[in-house]
Specification:
The chain has 280 residues and is of the alpha/beta class. The chain contains 9 helices and 12 strands. The two termini are 28 Å apart. The N terminus and C terminus are likely disordered. The structure holds adenosine-5'-diphosphate (ADP) and magnesium ion. It is found in: Cell membrane.
C-alpha cells in the first residue's frame, strides 16, 4: 500500500534531506525496505511511526552513525556514504536521552560544546543560545537542578552550536510532562524561525500535527503516506455526524492507514475512519 500526496508547487530547491530506496536489516530483521522521502530546506518534517518502526534507524543512517545496506541518502547535498565528513558537518542529532552534563551549569555545558566545535567566542555563543531557549535565568545553575523540559531545551541548544543547517530530533518529548512538551515544541518553533531544517521523529500524532510542515508515516519498512496535514486529511473524507462536519484527526488517519494493510487506499475509496482515543 502506498499513498503519496502531490508535493506543493514551488518547492524546487534542492532538498535538505533526500532518501531513496533505503534498505537496512539487522541480521534477519528487515527494518527498512525501501524508504523514500525528501525534506525541503527550512521546513519541519515529521517521521511518524510506532515503536520499532525504524525511525531511529533512519536518523542514524542520516547522521552517518549506521551504514545503509542499499539505496541512497543525502544531507545538505552530500551523500551519507561517500561524503560522510561533510554530512557530519551539516547535521546535528539530538537523541531522546539528553546528553548534558549534570554537574556543570547550562552555560558551562554550552561553552564546552562551543570549544569542542572550535567556535571563536564560546561565551558569546553560549549566551546567545541561552537567550534563544529562555534559559538565561538558569544559566549558572547546575543542570542537576533543571526540570525535564529545561534539560531537553538545553540539549537542543547544544546541538545548535556551530549552526548546523539540519537538525534531527529523535523523539524529543518522550518522557516529558505536558508542560515540558510545550516548552520543547516552542524551542522547535524557535529553530524553524531561524531557518534551520528539522527532521523530527515521533510516535505522538499530536506532536506531528503541532510542529510539522509535512508528515510521513513509516510503517513496515516503508513510507506509506507523505503529505501536509491538510493533504493527508484530504485523503480521508471528513466523518459526518448528522449536520455537524468533523475533520479526522491525524490519529484517525494514521490508524486507518496502518490498519488497512495490503489494500491501496485512494481518495476515491477511503476506508472508514475509526474513532480513536487520545494516545496520551
Ligand atoms: N542494533 C540493532 N540490532 C538488532 N536489532 C535492532 C538494532 N537496532 C534496532 N533494532 C530493531 O530494529 C527495529 C527498528 O528499531 P528503531 O529504528 O530503533 O525503531 P524506532 O526508532 O522507530 O522505535 C526494532 O525492531 C529494533 O528492535
Ligand atoms: Mg527510536
Amino acid at each position: 500500500m502506498s499513498i503519496d500526496v502531490q508535493r506543493a508547487p514551488g518547492q524546487i530547491r534542492e532538498p535538505a534531506i533526500q532518501v531513496r530506496g533505503l534498505h537496512k536489516s539487522y541480521q534477519e530483521l528487515r527494518v527498512l525496505r525501501g524508504v523514500d522521502f525528501d525534506v525541503a530546506r527550512g521546513s519541519v518534517f515529521a517521521l511518524l511511526g510506532s515503536n520499532g518502526a525504524g525511525k531511529t534507524t533512519v536518523v542514524r543512517i542520516l547522521s552517518t552513525l549506521l551504514r545503509l545496506d542499499a539505496g541512497s541518502a543525502s544531507v545538505n547535498g552530500f551523500d551519507v556514504v561517500a561524503q560522510a565528513a561533510k554530512v557530519r558537518a551539516s547535521i546535528s542529532l539530538t537523541g531522546q536521552f539528553a546528553a548534558v552534563d549534570e554537574v556543570l551549569s547550562g552555560r558551562e555545558n554550552l561553552i564546552l560544546v562551543a570549544r569542542l566545535r572550535r567556535q571563536r567566542e564560546p561565551g558569546r555563543v553560549a549566551d546567545d543560545l541561552l537567550v534563544r531557549f529562555a534559559l538565561t535565568d538558569a544559566a549558572n545553575r547546575r543542570v542537576a537542578t533543571y526540570s525535564g523540559g529545561m534539560r531537553r531545551r538545553l540539549d537542543i541548544a547544544m546541538s545548535l552550536v556551530g549552526n548546523p543547517p539540519v537538525i534531527v530530533l529523535d523523539e524529543p518529548t518522550v518522557g516529558l510532562d505536558p508542560q515540558a512538551r510545550l516548552e520543547v515544541w516552542q524551542a522547535v518553533r524557535e529553530l524553524v524561525a531561524q531557518g534551520t531544517t528539522v527532521l523530527l521523529t515521533t510516535q505522538y500524532l499530536d506532536e506531528a500535527e503541532q510542529l510539522a510542515d509535512r508528515i510521513a508515516v513509516l510503517h513496515e519498512g516503508r513510507v506509506i503516506a507523505n503529505g501536509t496535514l491538510t493533504e493527508l486529511r484530504r485523503l480521508f473524507p471528513p466523518a459526518t455526524v448528522e449536520y455537524v462536519e468533523k475533520q479526522p484527526s491525524l490519529e484517525d488517519i494514521f490508524l486507518a492507514i496502518v490498519s488497512d494493510e495490503g489494500t491501496t487506499v485512494t481518495t476515491a475509496s477511503a476506508p472508514p475512519v475509526r474513532a480513536a482515543k487520545d494516545p496520551r
